[in-house]
Amino acid sequence: MTELPGIVITGASGRMGQMLIQTVVQSDKARLVGAVERAGHPWVGQDIGQAMGGAALGVVVTDEPLEAFAKAQAVIDFTAPAATLQFAKLAAQARAVHVIGTTGMSDEDIAKLEPCGRHAVIVRAGNMSLGVNLLTQLTKKVAAALDDDYDIEIIESHHNQKVDAPSGTALMLGEAAAEGRGVALADVSDRGRDGITGARQKGDIGFVAVRGGDIVGEHDVMFATAGERIILRHVASDRSVFARGALKAALWGQSQKPGEYDMLDVLGL
Ligand SMILES: NC(=O)C1=CN([C@@H]2O[C@H](COP(=O)(O)OP(=O)(O)OC[C@H]3O[C@@H](n4cnc5c(N)ncnc54)[C@H](O)[C@@H]3O)[C@@H](O)[C@H]2O)C=CC1
Ligand SMILES: O=C(O)C1=N[C@H](C(=O)O)C[C@H](O)C1
Prior knowledge:
This protein has 10 helices and 12 strands. The chain is an alpha/beta fold.
């Protein structure tokens, strides 16, 4: 019998890290072979199951990513941009599929993934849920059907510990709206209203970020014109939707050629 694909989770103690550990351990399609945390983190050296407050899982948290990646078929990485760039090089070296959920990466950061994608499969998306990826397609379609008498605003809400804005999801939705309209998002994006801003520019795509409490992730795409508004909405109430998508991507990546992919490729949307 062939062994199930081995998965390493980076940022293992994080909100997503812990959800990913649970998701992989409960799956009958993959096995957990590693858990990585940053050097100096108190969980390093502890069994990941016990560190999470449960039974031992036989996987000790390490701060040596390459050693862990070498034993794995895939790395699922929801950490921070600098860490993700380091992991991309190491996953390519280990020829492991690298699933990147990390957001807040700059265009320069994203360009640095290109050489890694020549050696290994990379799947990257600002949101790994089926619902949001479907919403990008709906957004594109609605934006293509309406002219710029409809003002597009993207409103995102997240918990009070989120460090980046706009969210990765909001940017995906903005890209989809811009694509539907046949414009480049960089040319029409309005991200920072404060003070005497002047009236809204026709054709702009606006972004609004709300931060508070324990909101998992909510996104509205509003098309507003005189007399009516259309609002497309996604609400995530549990991080398992992201973790399930990420595991699906890790398994899908096993049969792909090296290159950079996104969740639309994984989901066939
Ligand atoms: N694409 C998607 O579907 C989703 C993406 N995210 C993104 O995932 C990222 C993480 O989110 P959370 O889990 O909420 O954050 P968090 O702050 O709870 O967890 C991040 C973890 O990464 C660890 N980390 C940082 N640098 C590291 C390094 N060099 N080596 C190993 N571990 C390192 C931290 O110690 C921490 O445990 C964010 O960018 C967030 O926006 C979150 C949810 C869904
Ligand atoms: O940081 C989060 O929590 C989330 N981040 C992703 C994003 O930036 O869009 C996805 C999700 O909304 C949760």
